[in-house]
Amino acid sequence: MSARRAAGRESPEEAAASSPPPASAARRLVTDAATSARMSKQRRANTAPELALRRELHRAGLRYFVDRPPVTGQRRRADVVFPRLRIAVYVDGCFWHRCPEHATDPKNNAQWWADKLAGNVARDRATDAALTAAGWQVVRVWEHEDPHTAAERITSLVERSKPG
After folding, report:
1. Is a pLDDT exceeding 50 seen at residue 41?
2. What are phi and psi of 69, to 5 degrees?
3. Do 65 and 159 form a contact (C-beta atoms < 8 A)?
């Protein structure tokens, strides 16, 4: 701290210049235009793997809700929900959710991406734990999984979960 600041004689301009940048400025990253354009086109819902899985589930005669929070008041949305049976299905992208077979590490802003992707995985585990504690069954499907095989796994769980 400067002697002028300690004595209270520092002007507001001097105080602003000597104080650390706000947290939002520290987190601002430089991203090239091509990367920014590519990332802005990433879908949150109705991705090709989701649509393929939903087609297979529908073909198997199952009816479900799409892109909805399994538990009222929860911000995290499941891709496919069977509310009466308390089954939530998530179709996870290999990049965003760190698939053990296909995960890649971006070169630009590597630490930011590492933190971001680790946060995604931690949030997935927290969601699984919260839903399980609330009596739900959670199914995670990787985007690279065969939709027919994944649908068979879900159909089997649905059949086992039906009352009577």
Report:
1. yes
2. -70, 130
3. no
Average pLDDT for the chain: 84
| Residue-wise pLDDT tens digits, 100-114 | 998 888 888 899 999
Residues in the chain, overall count: 164
- Please list, in sequence order, all residues whose beta carbon lies within 8 angstroms of the beta carbon of residue 76, skipping any fewer than 6 positions away: 69, 123, 127
Rounded CA-CA distance 97/118 in Å is 8
Measured CA to CA, the distance from residue 133 to residue 140 in angstroms comes to: 17
> What is residue 142's DSSP assignment?
E
CA gap 60, 107 in Å, rounded: 42
pLDDT confidence bin for 44, thresholds 50/70/90: low
Is 120 in contact with 76 (CB distance < 8 Å)? no
